[in-house]
């Protein structure tokens, strides 16, 4: 009885109603509305595992689990069991339910890691052959189809033929007797086809009058020629009904044969729907799964405490009904509370002002424990750790009754007495409470709030429903874990006697209950913490500035009642409040001052803790950002290093290819010392070009020009390449374009404008191989493979004796191209051949338009100094040689 009262006091039925709105089927909604409180921890663990797996499955699936087609077929199964004949609609509902549950099982089978759900549906039988037979015999409208039996198809074919004959006859009468017809239509009365005839003209159409209009002006007549045909139709209709009934009877018998399996199927679908509702409700609440911990208890036979266990941890706990009210009823924002109770604590005394949230704290904790027991997640931050309480007992609110002559105090005492009686009962006997069952029956409810799952008017046989693993016999606990919630303990009588009674009651509960949470205004209860370490104080915070509660729960500090401040805020005259203040004084005022100081100190510590947490968060964020940037820089460095290595390899490959071309051309031409000398210089030139393209160090103050460096000659306004190092006379040879010249160190500077150091120590210049053996040595040392398609061209310009080396880098073949397409190719070739100073453009002879376009483009190009047709040996009029600035 007291457990049923506790559920009512905690408004458990409202939470179940909210839960039912997340169910997908009517059966699931009914089951959620009558949610069963598990009797064992094993059952709770299974329910919680179901909720977790469904929660996981909902996040994986795009649209979640679908219960489409699943309906309440309990009544139909019960009627089939009792030899009744099901209607077509009922048969169709059974078929769709079979299909819906099979789809559920298919989805779950595709998730083999969800062990609990797979075990739940492992022995689910959906009878696809029965479903197919129902769909074969029953159409989408719930009618027996023609294909059900050949006899039924024959009967309906005869009906169609007779109906057509009747229509033909009646249509002929309507046309011949148009003056006697009230309206040109054919209708039915009592299952027979009739036509509307004007009352004065009834003799014009002989027949049977079956009905009359409200005004009496129209008679519905069955003409004599159709009477026999209508009689035959009625006979065929009775035959059709008999045959349809035979089909439905056969299907009903098949259903009755597997009625137990279908009831189990319905129960499994309901269990899944209930798990879906729990998961979706938990997701909506932003709740987290609880973890059940062992709680240190004391045996009734022994006063020796058990080893220490983990504390109860419920941080940022919110009242689920207030959350619903905030979202759906425009309620106030919910203020969360923190509950961290050490395992040695048996009694927590919560003090503080009225309207401060003490009662809400009790209800929030009670609902959190019940939600965890039924497999729901708890609306608190992780981790959610609490023990599995055997029962929750509460005394909240007044129980006044004029009929029973109960005052507030009397009501509290009677309810507390029932709580103490429940503490003495064995766990297995709590479900057998005749008085509670009798009271529920008097209220018009089904007996047994915690009874097996029932569905309203469903006819579901719960004996075949899937039960969670429960031991065959419930072993009585030596010290059952009971959560006792007492509101305003000892109130309603003389303060001194009420305080003494409250102290004695809380000490008794400390010995016999797992955990007791009590709210009180008695100052004597605040001192129990300092006498017995099993007691703890807590208080609800009160803002002295705004004279209003903050609804925050503070631990370790007793609260002040603040009755005078609240009375003043509520509008009591100030002179009365001041007078009352003078009466308080003394020790009470001193205690309140001490408590106020402790509260202020706690607030300062909380502010400092928040500031330290913010600093730590900023430091962690900064550390992460620095680590991320360091990793990015390291990755960038590796990428640059790889790119450099690839560029070096590409440059080496290109240099080897060009050197191979030079050597092959030398081998194919006449072996002369001059040719060897020119080839050697060409090879050195290629090497220097590759080095200068890869290594361009910034000149430092007092730089020394080296072979291959690029320097600026200010008086000429040209940039040149150093060919020979400065000699003893501080003169060096440079080249720009096709020209070579010797200049003094005074006339050159670095690209950064720095002057060179005079009289540097000259660098030794490696001797050039001038013989055929030398050329072969270069080829062997470079390990080059001569190519077949390259040529070495050495040409003497008219303005200088410096040989021009034609390579693939300074040769462009645009034969067959249009002028517009050739111009960007020439632009890129000029940029690529800039270091060599000359570009060979092969445009062919043709009509001469391409050559003319090339010459026009070169004439306007700023980097082209001059151009001319190549020598006859180089291609003649088919090749243009462009000399670059």
Gyration radius, rounded: 51 Å
Low-confidence stretches: 297-307, 400-405, 428-479, 695-700, 760-802
User: Could you give me the name of the CATH homologous superfamily of the largest domain?
Assistant: P-loop containing nucleotide triphosphate hydrolases
The general outline is flat
Indicate the structural class. alpha/beta
Order of strands, widest sheet: 10-11-12-8-13-14
- Please give the count of helices: 24
Strand segment count = 24
The CATH first-level class of the largest domain comes to Alpha Beta
Report the sheet with the most strands, covering strand number, pairing sense and barrel closure.
6 strands, mixed
CATH architecture of the largest domain: 3-Layer(aba) Sandwich
What can you see in these coordinates?
The chain has 5 domains: 154 residues, MutS, DNA mismatch repair protein, Chain A, domain 3 (Orthogonal Bundle); 98 residues, MutS, DNA mismatch repair protein, Chain A, domain 3 (Orthogonal Bundle); 248 residues, P-loop containing nucleotide triphosphate hydrolases (Rossmann fold); 112 residues, no CATH class; 92 residues, Ribosomal Protein S8, Chain: A, domain 1, CATH 3.30.1370.110. The protein is built from 24 helices and 24 strands. A 6-stranded mixed β-sheet has the order 10-11-12-8-13-14, with helices on both faces. Helix 6 packs across helix 11. The radius of gyration is 51 Å and the shape is flat. About 13% of the residues have low confidence.
């Amino acid at each position: 009885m007291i457990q049923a009262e506790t559920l009512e006091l905690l408004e458990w039925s409202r939470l179940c109603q909210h839960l039912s709105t997340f169910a997908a089927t009517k059966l699931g909604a009914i089951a959620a509305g009558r949610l069963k409180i598990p009797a064992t921890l094993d059952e709770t663990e299974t329910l919680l595992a179901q909720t977790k797996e469904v929660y996981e499955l909902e996040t994986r699936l795009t649209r979640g689990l679908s219960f489409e087609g699943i309906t309440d077929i309990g009544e139909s199964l019960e009627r089939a069991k009792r030899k009744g004949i099901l209607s077509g609609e009922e048969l169709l509902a059974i078929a769709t339910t079979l299909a819906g549950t099979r789809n559920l099982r298919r989805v779950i089978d595709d998730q083999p890691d969800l062990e609990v759900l797979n075990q739940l549906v492992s022995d689910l039988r959906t009878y696809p052959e029965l479903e197919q037979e129902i769909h074969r015999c029953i159409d989408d409208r719930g009618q027996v189809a023609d294909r059900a039996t050949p006899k039924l198809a024959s009967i309906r074919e005869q009906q169609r033929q007779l109906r057509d004959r009747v229509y033909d006859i009646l249509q002929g009468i309507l046309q011949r007797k148009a003056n006697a017809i009230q309206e040109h239509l054919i209708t039915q009365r009592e299952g027979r086809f009739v036509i509307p005839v004007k009352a004065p003209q009834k003799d014009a159409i002989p027949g049977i009058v079956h009905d009359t209009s409200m005004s009496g002006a129209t008679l519905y007549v069955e003409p004599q020629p159709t009477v026999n045909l209508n009689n035959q139709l009625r006979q065929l209709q009775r035959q059709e009904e008999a045959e349809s009934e035979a089909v439905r009877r056969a299907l009903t018998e098949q259903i009755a044969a597997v009625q137990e399996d279908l009831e189990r199927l319905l129960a499994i679908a309901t269990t899944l729907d209930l798990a879906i509702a729990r998961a979706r409700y938990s997701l909506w609440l932003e709740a987290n799964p609880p973890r059940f911990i062992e709680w240190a208890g004391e045996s009734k036979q022994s006063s020796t405490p058990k080893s220490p266990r983990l504390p109860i941890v419920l941080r940022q706990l919110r009242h689920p009904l207030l959350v619903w009210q905030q979202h759906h009823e425009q309620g106030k924002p919910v203020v969360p509370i923190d509950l961290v109770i050490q395992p040695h604590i048996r009694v927590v005394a919560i003090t503080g002002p009225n309207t401060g949230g003490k009662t809400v704290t009790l209800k929030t904790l009670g609902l959190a424990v019940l939600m965890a027991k039924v497999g729901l997640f708890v609306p608190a931050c992780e981790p959610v750790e609490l023990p599995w309480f055997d029962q929750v007992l509460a005394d909240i609110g007044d129980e006044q009754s004029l009929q029973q002559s109960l005052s507030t105090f009397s009501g509290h005492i009677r309810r507390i007495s029932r709580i103490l009686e429940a503490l003495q009962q064995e766990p297995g006997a709590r479900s057998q409470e005749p008085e509670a069952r009798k009271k529920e029956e008097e209220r018009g409810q089904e007996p047994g709030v915690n009874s097996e799952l029932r569905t309203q008017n469903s006819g579901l046989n719960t004996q075949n429903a899937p039960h969670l693993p429960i031991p065959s016999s419930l072993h009585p606990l030596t010290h059952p874990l009971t959560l006792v919630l007492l509101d305003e303990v000892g109130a309603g009588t003389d303060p001194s006697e009420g305080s003494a009674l409250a102290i004695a009651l809380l000490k008794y509960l400390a010995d016999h209950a797992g955990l007791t949470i009590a709210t009180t205004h008695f100052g004597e209860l605040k001192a129990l913490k300092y006498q017995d370490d099993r007691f703890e104080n807590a208080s609800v915070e009160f803002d002295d500035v705004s004279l209003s509660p903050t609804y925050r729960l503070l631990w370790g500090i007793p609260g002040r009642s603040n009755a005078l401040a609240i009375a003043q805020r509520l509008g009591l005259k100030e002179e009365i409040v001041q007078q009352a203040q003078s009466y308080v004084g003394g020790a009470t005022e001193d205690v309140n001052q001490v408590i106020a100081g402790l509260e202020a100190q706690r607030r300062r510590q909380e502010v400092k803790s928040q500031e330290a947490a913010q600093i730590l968060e900023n430091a962690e964020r900064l550390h992460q950002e620095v680590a991320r940037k360091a990793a990015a820089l390291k990755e960038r460095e590796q990428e640059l290093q790889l790119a450099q290595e690839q560029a070096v390899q590409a440059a080496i490959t290109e240099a080897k290819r060009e050197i191979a071309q030079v050597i092959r051309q030398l081998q194919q031409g006449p072996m002369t010392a001059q040719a060897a000398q020119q080839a050697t210089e060409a090879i050195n030139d290629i090497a220097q070009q590759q080095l200068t393209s890869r290594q361009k160090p910034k000149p430092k103050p007092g730089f020394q020009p080296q072979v291959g460096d690029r320097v600026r000659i200010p008086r000429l306004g040209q940039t040149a390449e150093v060919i020979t190092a400065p000699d003893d006379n501080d003169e060096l040879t440079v080249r720009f374009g096709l020209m070579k010249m010797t200049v003094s160190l005074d006339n050159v500077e670095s690209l950064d404008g720095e002057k060179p150091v005079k009289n540097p120590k000259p660098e030794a210049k490696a001797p050039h191989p001038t013989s055929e053996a030398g050329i072969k040595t270069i080829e062997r040392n470079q390990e080059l493979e001569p190519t077949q398609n390259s040529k070495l061209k050495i040409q003497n310009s008219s303005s200088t004796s410096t040989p021009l080396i034609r390579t693939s880098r300074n040769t462009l073949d645009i034969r067959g191209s249009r002028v517009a397409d050739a111009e960007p190719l020439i632009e890129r070739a000029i940029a690529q051949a800039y270091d060599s100073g000359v570009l060979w453009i092969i445009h062919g002879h043709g009509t001469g338009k391409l050559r003319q376009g090339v010459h026009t483009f070169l004439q306007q190009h700023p980097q082209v100094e001059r151009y001319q047709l190549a020598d006859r040996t180089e291609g003649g009029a088919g090749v243009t040689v462009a000399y670059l600035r």
